[in-house]
Amino acid sequence: MPGSQDRDTIQSVTLNRAVFYGAALIIVLFSSCVLAFPEQASLILGKAQTWASATFGWYYMLVVAFYLGFVLFVALSRYGDIKLGPDHATPDFSYGSWAAMLFSAGIGSELLFFGASEPLDHLLLPPEGVAGSAQAARDGMVLTMMHWGLHGWGIYTLVAMALAYFAYRHNLPLALRSAFYPLIGDRINGPVGHAVDIFGIVGTMFGLATSLGIGVMQINSGISFLTGIAQSHTMQVILIVVVMGAATLSAVSGVDKGIRRMSELNMLLALLMFFFVLFTGPTAHLLNTLVQNFGDYFTSLPRKTFDLYAYGNSGKERWLGSWTVFYWAWWIAWSPFVGMFIARISRGRTLREFVIGVLLIPMGFTLAWLSVFGNSALSFFQHGMKQLGNIALSEPAMAVYHMLSSYPLATPLIVLAVAICFIFFVTSADSGALVVANLSCTGDSSSDAPNWLRIFWAAAVCMLTLSLLFAGDYTSLQTAVVLSALPFSLVLVLFVVAMYRALHHEKQRDRSRSLAIASPLLNGRYRPGHTSSWRRRLNRAISYPGRDMVYRFMDETARPALSKVVEVLEEKGLQVESDLSPQDFSMSIRVEHGDEAPFVYGVQMQGYSTPSFMRRGGNLPTASRYYRAEVHLWEGSQEYDLVGYTEEQIINDILDHYERHLQFLHLIR
Q: Where are the transmembrane segments (predicted)?
């Protein structure tokens, strides 16, 4: 794997022409054809939906279970201790802040669309059982929670884990193609890498279009409910143009001023609505069903994971394609977008902490929301509000507004729901366009793409959303996402293979440290920190040198030692890269081994606060900070200090680590 990069070599963000033009061409051509021939497109998409469900239903069910199984395996295995970053890395955010951002990732306007309508749909048109029965209501909540539960968040976890691991642990770009490095090496920068990013962009665009299309229908339904203005494509066009304008302003204002503030506001509004519905409705019943729904969901999870309703009639395939297969494809299409966001906030976490947090924190609120809203709708239906069921089947976007109309302060509550949908619509368009724009670029992954590129993709996703709505509303959205996610699902299978190979190599590297037999280690004179004089050893142990002293040590002792090793390695015909100038308080050598992992050895100056007990009187140091010359390998700091080593001891320390690296290369063959 690549070692650490010199900051001076990081390139600025530049447009990846192959990825940008390839993805843009697919999106623009598809949108133009659908807008030009909406009726024909609707017919073709309808047939494609039936074909995809019948042909690939089993595949989507199996592959999503595979993703979830892998991320759980990583969390529960010995690999769970590996960090998303160097071994010495600490999380960029506190646990509370990280949890809050994960929490916000689980909220979207789709929860309003499906929160009330989906349980009612499963009650009245269940895949099996008696329609309208108490058991159908109970099973309907299990199906709803399954569609929004562990399987979907397992997909997000896989993508985010791969992006964060290869970016922060291996210093590769924060891009989809980087996950292929263990499989194809530097060829990730060629056609294969371009194809991976194009698949990711196209899938993300269709996933965004599906979410935004649902958001448009939800806002349009809310306006119609409040004002009596009929729903129409004209109104949807107006809404999309308004949202496009708002998303553009957000893009220009920047992430901190735009997306972050709007997301925080929307999270608070969503929580306000959630608790209002919980405490002004049948609270005791909602809490009882909440507990039972969670229990039913987890106990039925293994069976439902592989339930294809294969022993029912042929109509079950259509139900599966409209619901479970659609959901799995939708999660896959959204995964580059949400995965990129989660990866950016998770540096420094262990894989175990990461997987458990990403799986459980956002899912907990999502399932609680669906339980409260779903059981509220079921309760109204079962206690006489029968028209709510018909509305859920014919106009699912209207169901939540009719349900909310039965609560106190109904009008302000519905206005709040429309506002939540609108803000989610804007933030999804802008942040989604940001992620797609970043995938269209190369260079410094810590910087965002230019505004013009974000605006282009925001406009493209709005155009795509509009074309799908014109071609048949919700059904077209479903079909497009199922088909577009198919190639990217294969990419995610390769993500699993690459992640496993990289993690296996990590553990083999650890194993090589204990198996390598290096002659200096057998001789006590060369053990780290050992000197011929115990007095010198004691003085070294209680010394807290200043920066100038450590800098002189690096320049006068460490640098000649590294230079001699580089000289001999080059004489042996090895390809060696070195940076031996201590001007930036670090030096390093890197030995390439073709397509195998390189050997990296560095010395970096690190400053620390002097312990207070060492600053109390006597002849002990009084400076508030002291410095160390720490050894850094490919995986990060080794947390021991070279100051006090002789030149020969440093050379032997380098050779110790190099022999362990060669043992590691032997083990992974």
A: 18-37, 57-76, 97-116, 148-168, 195-217, 237-255, 267-287, 325-342, 354-372, 413-439, 451-471, 477-503
- How many Å apart are CA 399 and CA 388, to the nearest integer? 6
Q: How far apart are CA 609 and CA 611, in angstroms?
A: 6
DSSP 8-class letter at 601:
E
- Secondary structure element (H or E) that encloses residue 279, with its range: helix 261-280
What is the C-alpha separation between 262 and 102, in angstroms, rounded? 16
**Complete edge-to-edge strand list for the sheet that includes strand 586-593:** 575-579, 586-593, 596-609, 625-633, 636-641
Q: How far is CA 608 from CA 93, 201, 544, 545, in A?
A: 21, 44, 10, 11
Count the Cβ atoms, other than its own, within 10 Å of residue 618: 8
Rounded Cα–Cα distance for residues 222 and 1 (Å) = 52
Give the separation between CA 283 and CA 372, rounded to whole angstroms: 9
d(CA 162, CA 174): 9
How many residues are listed for the chain in this entry?
669
Q: Would you state the structure tokens that stand for residue 662, as one six-digit string?
A: 């060669």
Which H or E element spans position 411?
A: helix 410-439
- Nearest C-alpha neighbor of 654 from the set 535, 595, 567: 567
Q: Does residue 212 contact residue 429 with C-beta atoms inside 8 Å?
A: yes
- Displacement of CA 270 from its chain's centroid (Å): 22
Average confidence (pLDDT) over 336-345: 88
Q: What distance in Å separates the CA atoms of residue 407 and residue 98, rounded to the nearest whole number?
A: 34
Q: How far is CA 491 from CA 162, 216, 432, in A?
A: 12, 30, 20
Contact 630, 604 (CB under 8 A): yes
pLDDT at 542 over 70: yes
Each residue's pLDDT tens digit, 403-412: 999 999 999 9
Residue 167 DSSP code = I
Residue of 247, 445, 241, 461 whose CA lies nearest to 347: 445
3-state helix, strand, coil in the chain (%, to 5): 70, 5, 20
Please choose, from the candidates 315, 325, 321, 299, the residue with its C-alpha nearest in 3D space to the C-alpha of residue 142. Answer: 299
Bridge pairing between strands 586-593 and 575-579: antiparallel
The string of pLDDT tens digits covering residues 545-600 is 888 899 999 999 999 999 999 999 999 999 999 998 877 788 999 999 887 888 99
651 phi/psi in degrees, rounded to 5? -60, -45
Residue 452 to residues 15, 206, 328, 383, 441, Cα–Cα distance (Å): 11, 21, 32, 53, 13
Sign of the Cα torsion 201, 436, 155, 392 reads: negative
Rounded CA gap, 332 and 183, in Å?
Answer: 21
- State residue 352's pLDDT score: 96
Cβ neighbours for 218, distance < 8 A, ≥ 6 positions apart:
109, 112, 113, 397, 400, 421
- Give 71's DSSP letter: H
Distance, CA of 373 to CA of 293 (rounded, Å)? 12
Give the mean pLDDT of 207-231: 86
Other CB atoms within 10 A of residue 43 CB:
13
**Between the CA of residue 650 and those of 527, 547, 637, 641, 644, what are the distances in Å?**
10, 20, 16, 11, 10
List the alpha helices (DSSP H) in 165-232.
181-184, 191-227
CA distance 523 to 519: 7
Type of residue found at 242: V
554 near 582, Cβ under 8 Å?
A: yes
* Owner of token pair 């004179």: 525
Query: Distance between CA atoms of 238 and 244, rounded to whole angstroms?
Result: 10
Spatial separation of the C-alpha atoms in residues 192 and 402, rounded to whole Å:
50
